[in-house]
Amino acid sequence: xTFNYTLIGGFAFNTQALAWFQPFNVASQAFDINNLLSAPFxxxxxxxxxxxxxxxxxxxxxxxxxxxxLVAMKIALLxxxxxxxxxxxxxxPKFIETDAWRGIKYKDAQRLSLKVATLALNAFMRHFxxxxxxPHAVNAVDYSRWWSETSQENLTALMTxxxxxxxxxxxxxxxxxxxxxxxALDSLVLENPLPYPQRYLQDSTHIALNQxxxxxxxxxxxxx
Length: 224
Description:
Layout: E1 3-8, E2 26-31, H1 43-51, E3 60-65, H2 68-78, E4 83-89, H3 106-118, H4 121-133, H5 152-164, H6 168-171, E5 178-183, E6 198-201, H7 211-222
Parallel strand pairs: 1-2, 1-3, 3-4, 4-5, 5-6
Helix pairs in contact: 1-2, 3-5
């Protein structure tokens, strides 16, 4: 049996973060949301751009990382007929903290937005790589292969999506099976109650993932 799956990367990073999983006999394609369109764009625009590239009569499993999870959720809402299942890696329907929801503090997200607008792109990427690796320390140069070839305008548009989007209510409308995989040490996506299976990667951060553990876990979800 051939499984079709689609990878969707996250904010600022290309799909290298998902390149660890290359199973045999699988048809796949990958999308870097940072250079998929030119700003201005919104979440619907990103979802529609990917939908147009999906096979119209063949279902796919969406494997989405970080902010790419919001795009995957929107795709599943707009075209449920195209989706077999969804696997979210270090993602959430709402990234920003509210009274009853754990997440990135709004003031911290605003500071990050300011850095996107004021720092040179490479300087911002070095900063964000270190943030995404917390609490581990990383050499940002080692992670530069994960950096998307994008623009400050596109990152600004994605930051707006990240800050403003709340898909918690819409998530209930998605009919495809969903699994959320979290890094146990993730400082950006924090644990929240969700009525869906949640799995955990030990000794992994938002970007510094235990690759073998993740591949094994995703394989077990795709082929239980």
